[in-house]
Amino acid sequence: METHLADFIKHTTAGREAEEILRRCVHCGFCTATCPTYQLLGDELDGPRGRIYLIKQVLEGVEPTEKTRLHLDRCLSCRSCETTCPSGVQYTRLLDIGREVVESKVPRTGSDAFMRGALRNLLPRATLFGAAMKLGQSVRLLLPGVLRAKVPPPSSAGPAPRAGHARKMIALAGCVQPSMYPNINGATRRVLDRLGIEMVEPSGAGCCGAVRAHLNAAEGARDDARRNIDAWWPLLESGAEGLVMTASGCGSHVLEYAHLLQDDPDYALKAARVVLATRDISEVITAEAAGLAPLLQACKALPEAQRALAFHSPCSLQHGLKIRGTVESLLSAAGYTLTAVADSHLCCGSAGTYSVLQPVLSKRLQDNKIAALTAGGPSAIVSANVGCVGHLQGATDVPVMHWIEMLDARLSS
Length: 413
Fold this sequence. Notes:
This protein is α/β, with parallel strands linked by helices and 413 residues long. Among the domains are: 7-105, Fumarate Reductase Iron-sulfur Protein, Chain B, domain 2; 300-411, Rossmann fold (3-Layer(aba) Sandwich), CATH 3.40.50. Helix content is 54%, strand content 7%. The chain is built from 25 helices and eight strands. It has a four-stranded parallel β-sheet with strand order 2-1-3-4. It has a four-stranded parallel β-sheet with strand order 6-5-7-8, with helices on both faces.
């Protein structure tokens, strides 16, 4: 694709990156076939190829409008198009650049600006969000249906292992997971303990930064990354084996730290090391297969009624981290039978804050995903990302949980 970027961005780091990405695109349109919003709306401008053209125009000097911003807002950042693209177009990075430019030229006002500001300031603060969630849970049954669906019942992390181990891995508690689903990290801690690994959660770490990044607060996202690196660094220096991510959305974003901080002389090298040290929990456990196998062999037989599971692979897992088949293999080894799920490559509609900011489109995607997941009559639905777990559970009576909880339950039997 031929480009003629405007002077305001041409010679910047963002401009050079955008130009390289744009020139990779060959207009083939394969991406539209796997784009959730294009499938729903059938509008070229609500698919990757159309959005690429919109961003190209803006970077070449065409003034954006609120309509331009709307088409970019409707993108889920699911990265399904990147999986499909035969030319390796890094669409999401281009989208981030385009959104930041459009936002600066077409500022938000009114309720839109207020809502985004509230999300930027509430969600990344675990203590503040936790207090709000606790309040919501205390009056959950009195909440309207739509709001009640976003507030899970109170739960606990379960028993914590007592013994420490020489082997240690760092875990990220995150911002919403501790108050919404504390048992995800609780189950992870117990599973790793059985494999001879101690899970450490440094108190100085917090939100991975994905929330602010998706809401076009780029500098805030960089600050989140720097804070986490500062919390993790002493542990990495003292021998921790790496970082284990229990939310694939967080893991996918942490792998962007080196890119986010590439121009920061104090953090660029540290960020690169963090990226190399980061693993999804499914990768960590798969690497411990030799120790896991005898533990699973010692488990009680799984009752027939509990064997069928539907696995929802989050976009951040299959398109962001490029992990496919790993969780499924672990669940099969644990004695579960996975039901077939149609259109498993499509987003469930959660996508960070998307379900709040684009509720109509999100609901349509949620309905489609629930229909696909429940078609095989599973006893439960499992996923690998906290946002997907909460989003799906709000729309079905079938239990929805993180897959690591299922593995923990099996090893406890």
